[in-house]
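Render this sequence as a predicted structure.
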Amino acid sequence: MIIRNSAVLWRELDGEAILLYQQEGCSFNLNPVGTLIWKMLDGQHTPSDMATAICEAYEVEHEQAQHDVEQLLDNLRQYNLLIDSDSTSPSTV
C-alpha cells in the first residue's frame, strides 16, 4: 500500500489540496481528482480502489482513471511525497 509522506503539510481549500513539503522546499496544488487520490493515500486503498472512486465521482472509464492514478502517483513519488507502507516500520502498541 502507498501512504502520504507524513512530513508533507496539506490543506484542502474549495475541493483542491495544497501540499507543502518543506524538506524539499516545494509546494503543489492538486485539482479535485488529485485531491481525491491524495486523501485515499492512507495505506488502506490500492490504486485500483482510487480509480474506482474516481469512476464513481466522475464520468470516466476505469482504464482512464487507472492511468490518471498511476500518473499522479509517479509524479508524487518523484518528489518523495509518498511512502510505500511496506517499507515503514511496524507500529508498536
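Summary. The domain at 2-79 is CATH 3.90.930.60 (Outer Surface Protein A; domain 3). The first helix runs from residue 32 to 39.
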